[in-house]
Amino acid sequence: MAGVNGDRKGKKDDNGLGTAIDFMLSNAKLVLGVGGAAMLGIATLAMKRMYDRAMSAPTSPTKMEKTGKRSWEEPAWMGSSPRVLNHDMKFTVSRSLQSLPTSSHSIEPDGLRRAVGRSAAGRGGSAQSDLLRARMRLSLQERLWDFYRNWVNISAEEQALARKAALDICAELRVFLHAKLPDMPLREMYLSGSLYDDLQVVTADHAQLMVPLVLEKNLWSSIPGEDTIMNVPGFWLVRRENLEYFPRNSSYWDRCMVGGYLSPKSLLEVFDKLVSGSINWPAIGSVLDYIIRPVVPSETLTLEVQYEANRRLYVDFLPLLVMEDGTSLIAKPHRLAAERHENLWRQSFRVGETARLRALDQEDGGCRCTCLKVAKAVCKLDPALNRLNSSQLTNAILLLSQKEGDWTQDALADRFLQLLRALVEHLEAGRLPCALAPKVNLFCELTEQEVDELGYTLYCALSDPEGLLRTAEPHLP
Ligand SMILES: *[C@@H]1O[C@H](CO)[C@@H](O)[C@H](O)[C@H]1NC(C)=O
Ligand SMILES: *[C@@H]1O[C@H](CO)[C@@H](O)[C@H](O)[C@H]1NC(C)=O
Ligand SMILES: *[C@@H]1O[C@H](CO)[C@@H](O)[C@H](O)[C@H]1NC(C)=O
């Protein structure tokens, strides 16, 4: 390992590789304590990462042997296949995680640790180091609250303007659909999403327009994803029943039937033709004094509404089925292997999980929602964390709430760190159970590479949580 720190010059010209490795090594020391196999594991992971980036040939780890001799020894697995590499990385991270400290107390910036170490060596400085630690935690606590107040929390005025724009759009669509397709069996459309629970962060920029369909009970039934050949809990098929007695066209929605199932894709296409194709948005926009345009391409149906010179709102048009047992299914496609999963409806747990989070906070005056909003903001602003969304973060906090009792405002920094750590552990396991339906894996739509990338970013953040806020701030409006 000494070679890594010793050979600065040789590394200058390889895309900051050396600096990055140095950085990671000092992080590893910091998080894990000096020495030991665990540290080696993390450092190795870091080097693999830096290599992949610097060489831009991630699938060919042997290429680098030609491009330059390194002063440090390449771990034995460097020459193996990418699959095995990945496996090894997981193993090393997992091993390292087991030796992670379990409280935030031992997580300090490098400089401080050194300072503490020096003074502690001189006198019996443990009281002093406790003080330093306390100060350190206080400052993260203060940073988080500052960040929250200044950047994360959205002013009531801004929220009101965005809600008004969403409501105007909703009203226009309602009128249009009633006039143009009076026989389409829909319940009243309504607006939903974080904008309506004060859980939106940074800018008031998105809302969901829920479009509930009326389905005839005797003609349609829902089948949970785990009972299908695709075996994906959290997704459902909606099957057309009794075709022999109620032939095709008995139900209005038969036009969206594909292979005997109600197809969310086909349904979205029907709405897309209407909403993007036949509504005169420029005209409506000029009446409302907005600029409105459909977003293309979009996996769902989305309208962009510019309601002030520099303010935009994205409204997702989201067909919804409410089944007899109350299960909510939305027409939001599965991210991966979309063709195979084309007929799957996504179960939405949003209402239930948000209600539970709020109820817990109300019971103990807790900071769960604040913690969620800070985490959401960081994930929204840091491109490396974009893949984590509100549902995953909410559930990680709900699961943490089952283990951890102290959610007072003073504990925000501790809980935030614990949330980061929990996320790394869930990523490492490749599994984040939904708190309301443990069979559902909220990471099931992440690719292996995304899991690695997220885990790596969060792992680094564990030793420098304020770095997350620093990364986020430059992306702020
Ligand atoms: C966050 O914003 C809401 C209004 O949108 C306001 O009522 C609340 O006091 C703010 N919270 C903090 C801590 O600033
Ligand atoms: C179903 O009804 C539509 C018109 O509502 C018609 O165009 C179509 O041919 C019908 N399909 C069948 C199978 O009857
Ligand atoms: C959250 O993100 C995952 C992974 O990117 C995605 O598969 C999932 O659909 C998202 N969930 C929601 C509710 O948007």
UniProtKB/TrEMBL annotation:
Signal peptide: none annotated. GO terms for biological process: mitochondrion organization; positive regulation of mitochondrial fission. One of its GO terms (cellular component) is mitochondrial outer membrane. Residues 63-73 have a biased composition (Basic and acidic residues). Residues 158-352 form the Mitochondrial dynamics protein MID51-like C-terminal domain. The chain crosses the membrane at residues 30-47. GO terms for molecular function: nucleotide binding. Residues 367-454 form the Mab-21-like HhH/H2TH-like domain. The keyword 4Fe-4S does not apply. Keywords: Membrane, Mitochondrion, Mitochondrion outer membrane, Nucleotide-binding, Phosphoprotein, Transmembrane, Transmembrane helix. This is Mitochondrial elongation factor 1.
